[in-house]
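We now fix the convention by which a protein and its fold are recorded. Here is one such record, which you should read through line by line:

>
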Amino acid sequence: MAIKNKIDYKYRIGMRAIKTALAVVIGLYISHLLKLNSPIFVSIAAISSIKPSMSESLADMKKRLFTCIVGVIIGYLSSIISVPYLVEPLIGGTGILIIIYILALVKMRDMTQLSCIVFVASFCSNSDKASYALNRIIGTIIGVVVGVLVNYFISSPNIWENFIDASKKCYQSANKALREIIYDKKTDLSSFNSDFDNVNTLYKLLEKEVKTPFHHDHSIWRESQIVSLLDNISLRLQVINSMNTNYFKEDISKEIEKRYDLNEPTSKDLTEVDSVYNYHIEYILRYMDQLKELVEKE
């Protein structure tokens, strides 16, 4: 019963999974045609290159090629050093330290584990060392190229669409949060903050994506405006959520009634706190209108 409850019967294979399988198939066929001794290298590189965005695919390609070449070359050079049998493990340990140091210098510490594995495989290989090194490098090059091309030509990741979808959701969260603040004077902003964090994450990805050869002709002006508006809305929501107020200006009250069907008390003699509160509400409503226009723009 416990195992049955852990099985997700609703899971459906997604496009990324299909692309990963396709990249492996293509890579294995190429390995067969080129008669590579170790097609596994092609497959591993192809699998790792299928990322949620093209910028991530390219970044992974560069890192994987660099770490593979470093690991293979140092592994090969270490293996041809003529030393007594009992000293060989010390050479291997020294090679690991060299790789860790190099990757730290070039700020690729996240690839340290993989590069060390490549080094050990090259260092300990029982086959011809030069042949192994060449096969590993060629296999990795083929694999990452196949992975990147499949990722681009087969249902290419659309970060722009994901960003707009996330922005629409964030707009709805902001709208809901504003209504709750006006009605209850306090609300939990965690849902809005989570949605805003997601928008920011996707925007940073867009900034990288637009610099790739695949999307160099795109502009992120609209997206930058959306983030700027959400940033302002976020700041003002936090301010009004911490304030204790009682009255609205008449025009603000009418706008709130029209938008949220809330009949809030008005006054012509607002306190200083009420005035500040109304000031932020007015700007939030203005920013919300601009945001809605941007996220719904076709």
About this structure: Residues 13-153 form one domain. The chain has a mean pLDDT of 89. The radius of gyration is 28 Å.
